[in-house]
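Help! Submission page says 'invalid entity' but I think these are all valid:
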Amino acid sequence: MDIKAYVLKKALEAKEGARAAAKASSEEKNRALLKMAGSLLTKSRELQAANKKDIASAKKKGLSKAMIDRLTLTGKRIEEMAQGLVEVSKLPDPSGEILKMWRRPNGMMVGRMRVPIGVIAIIYESRPNVTADATALCLKAGNAVILRGGSEAVHSNTAIVKILRNAAASAGIHPGAVTFIESTERQAVMEMLKLEGIVDLVIPRGGEGLIRAVTENSRIPVLKHYKGVCHVFVDRDADLRMAEEICFNAKVQRPGTCNAMETMLVDGKIAVKFLPSMIKKFKKAGVKLKGGADVMKFDKSVSALKEGDYYTEYVDKILNIRIVPGIDSAMDHIAKYGSAHTDSIVTEDYNKAMRFLKEVDSSSVMVNASTRFSDGYQYGLGAEMGISTDKIHARGPMGLEELTCTKFIVLGSGQVRT
Amino acid sequence: MDIKAYVLKKALEAKEGARAAAKASSEEKNRALLKMAGSLLTKSRELQAANKKDIASAKKKGLSKAMIDRLTLTGKRIEEMAQGLVEVSKLPDPSGEILKMWRRPNGMMVGRMRVPIGVIAIIYESRPNVTADATALCLKAGNAVILRGGSEAVHSNTAIVKILRNAAASAGIHPGAVTFIESTERQAVMEMLKLEGIVDLVIPRGGEGLIRAVTENSRIPVLKHYKGVCHVFVDRDADLRMAEEICFNAKVQRPGTCNAMETMLVDGKIAVKFLPSMIKKFKKAGVKLKGGADVMKFDKSVSALKEGDYYTEYVDKILNIRIVPGIDSAMDHIAKYGSAHTDSIVTEDYNKAMRFLKEVDSSSVMVNASTRFSDGYQYGLGAEMGISTDKIHARGPMGLEELTCTKFIVLGSGQVRT
């Protein structure tokens, strides 16, 4: 079979699976999730054996240590994967919820009901745990998932999917609900992106290259996360001690994440008071600082900044510092250089807090809190299917609700339109 | 200037306009809408003069009578356009609304705030009234609009936009909030569809060809309406008098609309009782009926149906009739041939009503009501920006809320992540 026909066949299986998954009760879906978790634990050894093949070829190809680490499935990581499935089984089922219902003058009741989206394709790189996580969330919301992982993890993913499908089937879930594209050819993805009307949504998870390629080639709606160039603005009316803690946390607590701060904006009026000890603290933690001449004069370790740095997601212990005249230029900077991911103001001034909250157009806008909180679990969504930097359908951390849509329901008693 | 540069310049103006529109208060936006309405009325003669140019060249090109009618701006139609703007000014402003807010264990408050989407491009055909309607809805929700109308209406649209922009400017709204692409070249649309990151959403309004072309070429999210192949299923437990009224209304009240019924599904158990008088009523109203042999035997005027007919949106006084063994096959038919637009069941049986409501995956699912109600005004949304047959972001009739997205807001008191 050629790739086009292969992908179409898989997608049609998923579509059948979606119709079945949408009808499954919460109990059936939860039972399937728990069986999946159990099977992952029981078959931990087999999984690790499959994973070893991927690691061996990764080493042969000379992949980086970090890549190999992400690829590796230890017993502990398999336990965490299983635990993730158990957690999802405990979350409330979003599908079937009536969001609102109202009565029209003719007596007809009109409402919105939350329903599954249908077939969701997940295109992801290297991390095999995404296979289980994404399956759990899609299934819980009543969707079918089509998984297409990176070629480096193909043995691990194949083994995980086999376990998940068998467990699902034994719990009475249609196997099409967990569909896996084994082909590692790029063309398989391209064919998938043309299947408008069969696949309802594509979520790419991985580097910017993957995401751009998917967006440019997809006829299907895409939910994506480009990058996190996050800011903290330290206002002249900030509690400077609080500001120091928030900025330090936003940069240092886990610099490799998308919600870490990349540029600290400091109100010129308090720069002299705030910067010396803040810079000292960052230096002590090994953060490399960049800034203009006005920042460099505070410490000779600060290196000269180029404009392009403001657009850069370092995902590392590197930080831009910029002194601004006040809140307006801070917000202008964020609008120009930011990625509309997460931005925070530190201030004790109520009106500036409210202005920042209203006017900054980012997926998460914060007052007096670390940007590191921008996360589905930290927000209390109970799960996270990535963070959307789009504005359509989902924006910010995505939980189960973002894997559903709504339909209108009408309860009539014979009404006709005149 | 080449087209690419021209479109980019326009889009950047719109982006500036969007930032300004998002900051405008409800009062400012409403004042602008009322000024727009007033100006349309004052300049009705000028508008009609511009419209005459379009009509003259439409006649020269030999466009159909229906096309020319849709293109024509009479004094009365201009009054209706103005009235539409006044109505939108009366609607509640959706932006800034807090949908939900909750407290996290660390004391941080997390919520979702409804905010404008940004820049919305509307690509539409012939009807000049869309220019004013779309502008009003986009602006009210705090967005900037980029309008690209059909070439047949270019003089009318240019005149309308000039009036709207001047009125907006006099009310203090940034003129970029109402941006118009004068170029009627197809390439202008293609360039627009590449402006990801500047244009946030594209809404094509027109025929299937336009919509497919936009979807296939857009890197920007698209909200679209393909077609309405709507069904009414008359269950064996229906009140047959009610069923007759609903089916008649769904087909005949305005056959040219997307929410009119195209196929009537009749439970075999009541076909003999139901069909004779129903067919008579349809015949009297001039509806051409199609059906299989089992339907043809009820009346010799029923013509033979081909399978392809079940997929067809007639938008005319033509109706397919199919006799089915029961609710399951009715739902299978809808899933296979329908367009997931609007489907209704007529039944007195509670359990079948609930099954149909839950299991039919269409943008509007009804019990005992005419499909013709699937409409923003009829649902009480106060406005309508078309009907989405997509599942992502908006599904079914779109009102003002569908022209917004949400962002997360966090009110902290110094929280950092550990």
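Support: the input was valid. A stray whitespace character was the problem, and the output above is from the cleaned input. Chain B has a mean pLDDT of 96.
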